[in-house]
Every structure is written in structure tokens, then in C-alpha cells.
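User: Quick sanity check before I run a bigger batch. Here is a single chain. Can you write out its predicted 3D structure?
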Amino acid sequence: MATMMEELEHEFKSLTKLLLCQELSDLDAYGKWLGKHVSLPHPVYSKISKKEVWVNPPLSFRKMKFTTSRVISMEDMNKVNVSLSKPEDFEGATLKEISEKLIKPVSYLCGDFRFRTYENVDKCSGAGDGRNLYYGEDLYLKIKNCAYSNYTLYSENMFGCHGVPRSKFCIHAYNSVNVTRCFEVDGRINSSDSFFCHNSESLSNCLFCFNAKSMRYAVANVEVGPEKFAKVKKILLDYVASELKAKKDCALDIYNVGCYTGHRS
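Assistant: Done. Predicted structure follows.
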């Protein structure tokens, strides 16, 4: 029986061939590129068991990591969730005393959180109800074959994605709902087979479309037809695939496509 990484590697190869028309291999070699716009978990050690625990990425509004000295795993929860305080301890206590003496002793961050049934989960701070989940946070609810992703629900075959529920077969999809076979997209809904598109709805076979709706075979918000679309798409994908094969990275992405000037040093 294949291992989780063997299965994920197979899906990554198949997906890159589907999206980029060229097969890429060695998922972890592309890890930095896949996760460059995704908040990912990091490992620390449990305060109780001393075992490695993967915890939530830094909160965006705080721009800081959680206090690692208060981290435990799910296996440790029953060892710390019983308070030694008594009701009378609250009488006359100041807010600082309540925080330090009553709340802090039972205040821990639970890493390696798991939900419902799951199979093959590794390097995830929160995951469950799915299969083959690797290096991610908030990967839940009938999800499978997902890596280097955050807040991806009811989805399958998603790599380097954030905030993309009910979607499948995407790489670098962000803040979108119900998208299929998309690459480098953000703010999309009900769309498929699109590349480098932002803030759009109901698009199919589109490149570089922004603030658009209900278009097919379009480039830069102009419907050009299947033949011309295919020519532009080939130029784009040949460039992206060559950069990835040579550097395991591609500087061009949905967040800089409007001001991209060439190779990154």
C-alpha cells in the first residue's frame, strides 16, 4: 500500500501536468514556492509530554507566534483541563490575580488538533474528516490530498491554497469558493480552468481577467475564442513551467502580475 507522501506525490505530478502541461516532481522541493502566500503551522514541543507538536501559524493581526511554553497536544488535554481553584478564590481577587492564579494554570494552546475520523495526517496544526493532509492548518470536512494549505474545506487535490472551500484541482488559489482547475487566482467564485485571475465570477478558460463576470476564452477581459486563447495560454504556461523546473520557484504570481517586470535575482 502506498504511503501518504507517495500518494500526494502522485497527485502533485498529475495536477501539475493537468494545469501546467508539464509534470513536476518532489512536492517538498516546491514547498517554499507553494507556501509563500499561505500561513503554515510550525513545530514546537509539548509542555507536558515533551513530544513534537505542530501549532497554528502566527495570527495575522498580531504578527506574532503563540507562546510556545503553553503548548500541548490533544493527547495531553486531560492532564491539564482540571482547575485546582475553588469558588472562594474569586472573592475579592483583582483582574490580574484572576488571570495569573486562576486562568493561566489551565490556559494552554492545543496543537495537533484532530477532528472526527481521519487518515494520513502529518505536520498539521488542525485537520480532520479527511485523508492525505500534509503541512497545513484548518484542513477539514470531506477533504483529501491537500498540502501546504490553510483554511481549505470540502475540497480535494489542493496545493498551496488559502481560504478556498468546495474546490478541487488547484494550485495557488486564494480566497475563492467553488473553483476547479485554477492556478494563481484570488477572489474567485464558481469558475474553472483559469489562470492569474482576480475578483471574478463564473469564468471558464480565462487568463489575466480582473473584476470580470461570465466570460469564456478570455484574455485580459476580452473574449478571444478558443484558438487565440490556447496560443496565449501556451506562452504563459511554458514560461511558468520552465521557471519552476529551473528554480523550484516562479516569481510571477497573482499578487504581482500587474507590475511584474521579469526575472527575480
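Residues 57 and 63 are 10 Å apart (CA to CA).

User: Great, the batch can go ahead then.
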